[in-house]
Amino acid sequence: MSVQQQIREQLLAALAPDHLEVANESHMHSVPPNSETHFRVVVVSEVFSGQRQVARHQKIYGLLAAQLEGPVHALALHTYSPVEWQARAGAAPASPDCLGGSAADAQGAD
User: How many degrees, rounded to 5, is the angle at CA 35 between CA 73 and CA 1?
Assistant: First the structure.
């Protein structure tokens, strides 16, 4: 099973989300082709009602601990309650372009 699918299944099971997007954005970064290292996750769940962003993110980090210890290098989280999602007209911010920062770039810097 792909890392993307693992993330999706774990979040579906634990959060019963109204809306879930799990996008593999590895291709936007300096990684080998077909990598599964950078993900953007949008989760809308009643579980998040009354919770601060920090608590929401900590919950997801706990759920995805195995992936974060292994293949996942970056996780962009956008977490909303259903009311917040409705107020945003069902849209989350897009991920910014990668600014580089690969290991190869660092080796050439003085």
Answer: 95
